[in-house]
Design a protein that fits this description.
Blueprint lengths: L15 H23 L1 E3 L10 H15 L7 E9 L12 E10 L7 H25 L12 E4 H7 L5 H11 L2 E5 L19 E13 L4 E11 L2 H7 L10 H7 L6 E7 H8 L15 H9 L6
Parallel strand pairs: 1-2, 4-5
Antiparallel strand pairs: 2-3, 3-8, 5-6, 6-7, 7-8
Length: 307
């Protein structure tokens, strides 16, 4: 049985048919805005099915930028969908994960927090502009997201809420700042533990982060995207501290030998973004997935229409 949470008094503002129309409009509108804003070109990407699917797609796109001859300021985006092999199914997790990934060539001088924050602002604008278009067609969706992004590091969160877990820190911060970018994810904090684990050969842990909004429907902090400047030789060596195999994976060797372009990129969760903008309580309302009979029955009684 899947874990199900039903917000008190929940009722979807859209019918099933309206939901399908809104999801189609949202996905087409958002990816078009993101591509225009970041100067991205669509490319077909292979499917990934391992536990590091998001990181694998990012690495593949970084390699593709070099192979395809893209230059500074140019980039690509692709769609990916992977099966979830483990983990409990619940309101936010279906049988598969769908995402947009993007990657863009930058210069060494652009490996800065300012460049990262600028890209985050562009992603937020693409999300909020898409919401405005949806509200014009479906005014019953009502409330708007805040475009004002608060940037905070994981160490600042630990210092601010030392007695809370990383997830609780995010919840507390997002209640006060409804649009936030949590920066510097991956390395150990002063407490000795990382905020969250990240692959050492994808993002530079000093120049990455997650974009969260306060989800008023579910009354929780809600992560919909990640953005990061990718590792260069120096960052990779720093993040690979400790015993390492003598033979490194091909991707790591290419980074260490400086055979890949400098890039930044990110991922956006398609169904989670749809949940947020369409004020849905369950991912099954925007994603056709697989659910056990008891979950289907419980959702029907709660007024949650699974696709």
């Amino acid at each position: 049985m899947c874990k199900l949470t039903v917000p008190q008094g929940y009722a979807s503002p859209l019918t099933v048919r309206e939901t399908q129309q809104a999801v189609q409009q949202l996905r087409a509108g958002f990816v078009s805005r993101l591509a225009d804003t970041l100067n991205l070109c669509w490319v077909p990407a292979p499917l990934f099915s391992d536990a590091q699917a998001g990181a694998s797609l990012a690495k593949w796109m970084r390699c593709a930028l070099g192979q395809y001859g893209y230059t500074q300021g140019e980039g690509v985006y692709a769609e990916g969908s992977t099966a979830r092999r483990e983990g409990e199914l619940d309101n936010l997790h279906g049988a598969y994960v769908d995402r947009w990934g993007w990657e863009r060539v930058i210069s060494q001088s652009q490996r800065t927090p300012e460049e990262l924050e600028r890209a985050v602002g562009q992603v937020v604008d693409a999300i909020c502009d898409t919401q405005e278009e949806l509200l014009a067609r479906f005014p019953q969706l009502g409330r708007r997201l805040s475009r004002r992004v608060r940037f905070v590091t994981t160490q600042q969160l630990e210092d601010r809420y030392p007695s809370l877990t990383p997830q609780q820190r995010e919840e507390q911060y997002l209640q006060e700042h409804p649009t936030a970018f949590i920066m510097q994810i991956g390395g150990a904090l002063r407490s000795g533990s990382p905020h969250e684990g990240r692959a050492p050969d994808c993002d530079d842990w000093q120049l990455n982060g997650d974009l969260l909004f306060w989800n008023a429907t579910l009354d929780c902090a809600f992560k919909v995207a990640s953005v990061g400047i990718r590792v260069d030789r120096r960052a990779l060596l720093r993040q690979l501290q400790g015993p390492q195999p003598q033979r490194k994976p091909d991707f790591q060797r290419m980074v260490l030998e400086e055979r890949l372009p400098m890039t930044m990129g990110g991922g956006v969760a398609q169904s989670l973004l749809s949940m947020l903008l369409l004020r849905k309580a369950h991912i099954g309302e925007v994603q056709a997935s697989l659910w056990d009979r008891e979950t289907v029955s419980d959702c029907r009684r709660a007024g949650i229409a699974l696709l």
